């Protein structure tokens, strides 16, 4: 793990891995969306609105996955003081927030014809909205820490505490009476017809690769920003 603590070594890896992930993700996502939007038959109950799941499900997955990445990176930073862990957490925050917002937006679009309303204070919807607010708080906090030069432990602790919401989102449809459908994919089995499941899994993989590429690109940008600030500081001290 500490082998990539050296920014030069990490940047050398990220320089070729970022475009590889991005191109692969775009190709898989395009295949999945074309497949899901043109070839998959309408659902027996939801009709044509079922096609939104090829965006909604990957967005929900990556909204939760983004905060999981923040929590893991925060733990690594707090325990092992890994120098790139805090940067990795910051890099995952913005794309994680974007996918969370996409999840809420597509869920509302799906809910209007299905439930007859754009929004319900359902356990799954409410906990996902809380996740969006957590992202906003983390981004503001990490930017303030970077601007003021204070300890990165503060956003790291916030990232760990916020992770409590992830299992709540995951189990909300089980713990409480919910308008949201129960889990369709569990360990070892799936309630989704293969005609929908295969393109859905491809979409999840494609969006995940794009997410990884964006995180790496943001880490490279943040590292460059830190290096520029350090260089300017040295020049100011020398002057």
From TrEMBL:
Which residue intervals define the domain Cytochrome c assembly protein in the entry? 6-180
Q: Which InterPro entries match?
A: Cyt_c_assembly, Cyt_c_biogenesis_CcmC, Cyt_c_biogenesis_CcsA/CcmC
Keyword Hydrolase on this protein? Answer: no
Q: Name one GO molecular function term.
A: heme binding
Which Pfam families does the record cross-reference, listed alphabetically?
Cytochrom_C_asm
Q: What is its main location?
A: membrane
Q: What does this protein do?
A: Required for the export of heme to the periplasm for the biogenesis of c-type cytochromes.
Its name, as the record gives it, is Heme exporter protein C
**Encoding gene per record:** ccsA
């Amino acid at each position: 793990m500490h082998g990539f603590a050296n920014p030069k070594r990490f940047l050398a890896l990220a320089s070729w891995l970022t475009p590889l992930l991005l191109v692969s993700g775009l190709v898989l996502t395009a295949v999945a969306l074309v497949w899901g939007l043109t070839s998959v038959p309408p659902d027996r109950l939801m009709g044509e609105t079922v096609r939104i799941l090829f965006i909604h499900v990957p967005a929900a997955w990556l909204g939760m996955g983004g905060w999981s990445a923040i929590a893991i990176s925060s733990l690594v930073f707090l325990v092992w003081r890994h120098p790139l862990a805090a940067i990795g957490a910051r890099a995952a925050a913005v794309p994680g927030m974007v996918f969370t917002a996409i999840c809420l937006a597509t869920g509302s679009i799906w809910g209007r014809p299905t439930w007859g309303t754009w929004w319900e204070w359902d356990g799954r919807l409410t906990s996902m909205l809380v996740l969006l607010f957590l992202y906003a708080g983390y981004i503001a906090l990490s930017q303030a820490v970077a601007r003021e030069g204070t300890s990165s432990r503060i956003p790291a602790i916030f990232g760990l505490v916020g992770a409590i919401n992830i299992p709540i989102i995951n189990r909300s449809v089980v713990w409480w009476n919910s308008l949201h459908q129960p889990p369709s994919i569990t360990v070892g089995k799936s309630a989704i017809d293969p005609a929908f499941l295969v393109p859905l899994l491809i979409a999840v993989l494609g969006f995940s690769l794009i997410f990884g590429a964006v995180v790496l690109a943001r880490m490279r940008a943040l590292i460059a920003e830190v290096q520029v600030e350090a260089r300017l500081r040295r020049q100011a001290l020398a002057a």
